[in-house]
Amino acid sequence: MPRPSHRGKILAEGLKVVHERGFAGASVRDIVQAAGVPQGSFTNHFASKEAFGLEVLELYFANTRDILRDTLRNDALPPLKRLGDYIDWSISRLCVNQTRNGCLLGNFALEASDHSDAIRHRVVEIFAELQQSFEYCLASAAKAGELPADFDCNDVAGFIVASLQGSILLAKAQRSPQPVVRFKHLLFSKILR
Prior knowledge:
CATH class of the largest domain: Mainly Alpha
Largest sheet: none
Strand content: under 5%
Order of helices and strands: HHHHHHHHH
Keywords: DNA-binding, Transcription, Transcription regulation
Radius of gyration: 18 Å
Pfam families: TetR_C_13, TetR_N
GO molecular function: DNA binding
Protein name: Transcriptional regulator, TetR family
Number of domains: 2
């Protein structure tokens, strides 16, 4: 009889540990303790902590993709409402832990990019996918007449990704969602006109 796999449990609980403590701050021992599995289970399922980190990124972004589908890429809703809904979701996710954890993507970009090219490349790809979703939403807004027809959707989408990540980083440091709230206000009152 084969032994049960602890892979999913290690990933789910490991994601929480890494998001709370950071990639470098989360030891393999911390991860397996949180999952309630023997330490050998980690090496049975992951060739390295870097390989585990890449899978944690995928798990985290899979959840984000669901939100992208329901907000930025949801053609049943007015485009600028979708954009506002995505930012509101970002604020509510931040507030779950009093903004202490920030965004795992931004955390990995800051912390792991210097130590792992594989993680750095994957984070860049994920940010590009986020930018494409913002661009899709903005292009829909231009097509619907919510924005000027010649609106620079690509540049503004890049600005949104960078500014949202920056405001989330500040929110984490300040232990307040206010920087993201301010970003949303300025985005809608000054840029998306």
